[in-house]
Amino acid sequence: MKNKQQTLALSEISIPAPFKKTKPNREKINALKEYIQKTGTLDQTIIVHPKTRMLVDGFARYLAAKELGMNEVPVQFGTKKRPSKKPPKKHRSQVKVSEETRLAIWQAEDGRCEVCKRAMDKRFARWLPVEKGKIEDHPDALHLACIDCSRNQPEYLRTFIQVDKSVMKKIEQKTEYDNELEFVNDFREYAVIVGKNKEFRTYWLPGIGSFLIKTLDEKENGLPVREVFQARSIKVNGKLQIKPQERTRGFKRPVLQLS
């Protein structure tokens, strides 16, 4: 024989401080209110501490009931939250793309990302499946992608870039550039990634030199601000050297949903 469901007056339930600081999920609360109006009760009991009457789990249900003017709610006495219902774990593909295949697609596309068209060093060549969800260790089944596009991330250099004054001074002294804007425009368009760690990236601007760039703790028009903060090497009398793409397989350009 089932036990009769317990109820408790809303006025008897205390709300912990952390819950009060939490921004309510309006979409969830509205859906719960609609459910209550249709059924006359909550979809689940609210968990309340047996001694203190402190809310343990079910804050959204508490708010929905309160907004609808309910005096009592079904409760369950306990000290732990319900286990969250996690979505099924996605299993990564067991297919491994060999170094030979990765190099083959890099060579076939002349080292250009098939998404953003940026040139890349072969050490940073990545891939995307030509047919979504189908991964095969074969060049014809894979697009060549840069490290950003392969992760559905915006291009690292497609944002606001500034140059440290001391670095810009060296650039102006040794190269054809005489202003920051001109250098930044070419750097954003033609720089090739040659190094990366958690703190900064290293890019090589063909014919000019290699530079370290990092993300600053600020934004410009909602975009991250990045700074060229160090010159690793600058070629004396350096001039930008742009090498046109010489070969491609001509696959349809993949379209990303940026994360």
Automatic annotation (TrEMBL):
Give the matching InterPro entries. Answer: ParB/Sulfiredoxin_sf
Q: Where is the composition biased (Basic residues)?
A: 79-94
| SUPFAM superfamilies associated with the record | ParB/Sulfiredoxin
Annotated segments matching region Disordered:
75-94
Which superkingdom? Answer: Bacteria
Query: Could you identify this protein by its name?
Result: ParB N-terminal domain-containing protein
Q: Which organism is it from?
A: Thermoactinomyces daqus
